């Protein structure tokens, strides 16, 4: 009797949901994640699972997952990184979202869970580790909104290993950027204007990389961008 080979179990990748005031298909407010992000994790062989932002025991909630993807979203409240005022451009701040994302970052990194952080996710990790942000990059002339631009990647980094390149075309949508990197973080990529586009933490015992751009935007056609999701899922699978 010939047995059909068992289908490999997909590693479970937790993605904190984002609050949305309106969703036409559901008629009411919702908790969402970008479809392109979900599909990139699925293509990589992972099982994407949105998790509800809520106060409580975050560590026990994360224990069932194999990896974490911290997605993009609105701005962090500036008081989290010691800013005295709030720039007029700061938008979509949500206290519950901030508290949850920051705790997810701290807990996941502390236990060595594989983590990929994207856009706001990079900023969350930076702030969670004591870093600061520049609240606004200088308006339409300097911000990276609806922009695809080249990013130089440091050799020997996890980011280079994941993407397989030293320069990539990055799809960006952000008006804030890293000011001071958090404890232990090193810069793994920069844009031509000096903006930090990647962060890593060589001292961690788990796989972690963060990018300021949105790799999911072009992952379906760019192997370098899909490589980030592939690397996350591979690290999640290898963890067990």
UniProtKB/TrEMBL annotation:
It comes from the Bacteria. The keyword Transferase does not apply. GO terms for molecular function: hydrolase activity. The keyword Hydrolase applies. Keywords: Hydrolase. It holds the Pfam family Peptidase_C26. PANTHER family: GLUTAMINE AMIDOTRANSFERASE PB2B2.05-RELATED (PTHR43235). This is Gamma-glutamyl-gamma-aminobutyrate hydrolase family protein. It comes from Streptomyces phaeochromogenes.
């Amino acid at each position: 009797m010939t047995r059909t080979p068992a289908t490999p179990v997909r590693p479970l990748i937790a993605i904190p949901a984002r609050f949305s005031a309106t969703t036409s298909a559901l008629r009411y407010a919702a908790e969402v994640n970008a479809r392109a992000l979900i599909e990139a994790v699925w293509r990589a062989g992972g099982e994407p699972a949105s998790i509800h932002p809520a106060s409580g025991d975050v560590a026990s909630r994360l224990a069932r997952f194999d990896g974490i993807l911290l997605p993009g979203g609105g701005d962090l409240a500036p008081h989290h990184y010691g800013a005295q005022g709030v720039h007029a451009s700061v938008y979509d701040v949500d206290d519950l979202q901030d508290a949850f994302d920051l705790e997810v970052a701290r807990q996941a990194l502390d236990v060595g869970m594989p983590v990929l952080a994207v856009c706001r996710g990079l900023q969350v990790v930076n702030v969670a580790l004591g870093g600061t942000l520049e609240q606004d990059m200088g308006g339409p002339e300097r911000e990276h909104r609806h922009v695809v631009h080249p990013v130089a990647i440091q050799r020997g980094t996890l980011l280079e290993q994941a993407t397989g390149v030293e320069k990539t075309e990055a799809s960006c949508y952000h008006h804030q950027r890293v000011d001071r990197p958090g404890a232990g973080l090193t810069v793994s990529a920069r844009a031509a204007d000096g903006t930090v586009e990647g962060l890593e933490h060589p001292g961690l015992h788990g796989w972690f990389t963060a990018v300021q751009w949105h790799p999911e935007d072009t992952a379906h056609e760019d192997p370098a961008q899909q490589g980030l999701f592939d690397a996350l899922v591979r690290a999640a699978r290898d963890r067990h």
